[in-house]
Amino acid sequence: MTEMLSGRRVLVTAGAGGIGLAIATAFHGAGARVVICDVDETALARARQSHPDWLVLACDVSRREQVDAMFEAVKAQGGGALDVLVNNAGIAGPTGGIETLEPDDWDRTIAVNLTGVYLVTRRAVPLLKAAGGGAIINISSAAGKLGFPLRTPYSASKFGVIGLTETLAMELGPDQIRVNAILPGVVAGDRQDRVLETKARASGISLDEQRRLAVARVSMRTMVLADDIAQAALFLAGPAGRYVSGERLSVGGNVEALS
Question: Residue 243 catalytic?
């Protein structure tokens, strides 16, 4: 796999931290030429320092003009072509009952988690076609196949990513572009900690109880790591996944339900 990914041009959105950084690092280790974007300036600065050979760009994927500007840099760096796109950018969105949610919070969640995937993908597809084909990997969630009480905007957006994935796999298959989604389960890390804290407050239970509930309905009774998601992305982008398209790959120890 390492040899086959050598020199491949890869773009990872929200690639300066968390799952995105793990994915970008894995592709770099497999010999790929890595481009990342993010909105976190502090994380971007760290990435520039630790990976001077990466192209590191600031971009809010929900803003069309910023996405367009990013792709001018991507085209220049990649010679007008791209081999792999990983749509990782996403936000947790608000927590609360539907009647308590502010429309602005709903709009922002959909804008980043779903419209952002569209805006980036529409610009990436011509570059993937110029490369003769490639892979699009969309990071959805277990909440993209299961209802998620008190997290309506997030779940709705991640269900939308699944619909986009399956439709684009059909649309782009003749161009040898594979489109798949990874559905992480409960991923250990700072972001998950913040989500659990907010959910515990909204539910009126302790953080420890919320942590217990988070894995109680996972068959393997465990959280997963960002590196587990990165390895799944490598599989989908590499030669072992050359005929895998239109699929939803769950990486979470079999999440039975979300609570």
Answer: no
